[in-house]
Amino acid sequence: MSTNSNTSSTSNNNSSSQTQPSNSNDNVYRGVNDQGNKWTHRGDSVASGGSYHYSNQDNSYYYQNPDGSRYYNDGNGFSSYKKQKYHTDEITDTNLAKIEFYFDLS
User: Which pTM value belongs to this model?
Assistant: First the structure.
């Protein structure tokens, strides 16, 4: 089983527009990258402990929670979730699990 989530379309490029926090305590940043994808970042960094969310023009979305867990949805029925089990500074996409949902609508 292989999960292939191309997150290059969710990159936070330097040429994006962004907003600064409304006050010094909330540390929330929002913007749109040069590909038109919306992003939100909460916390001091996007490393473990920070949280962020990307909402892409192709209806896919990706986020990381403050506990380091990650979720990806491709907008077409595929999603993956990775729970952070160990404290590390790097999380690799090879640790993502594939989750499929089936509904009987008959």
Answer: 0.48
**How does 77-102 read in b/e, with b if 16+ C-beta sit within 10 Å?**
ebbbebebeeeeeebeeeebeeeeee
> Which residue numbers in the chain have pLDDT < 50?
1-16, 18, 20-25, 46, 88-92, 95-103, 106
Tokens of 45: 């960094």
Where are the domains positioned within the chain?
18-99
DSSP letters along the chain, please? -------GGG---TTSEEE--SSTTT-EEEEE-TTS-EEEEESS-SSBTBEEEEE-TTS-EEEE-TTS-EEEE-SSS-EEEE---S--S---GGGPEEE-------
CA distances from 40 to 80, 94, 98 (A): 20, 24, 24
Contact between 18 and 31 under an 8 Å Cβ cutoff? The reply is: yes
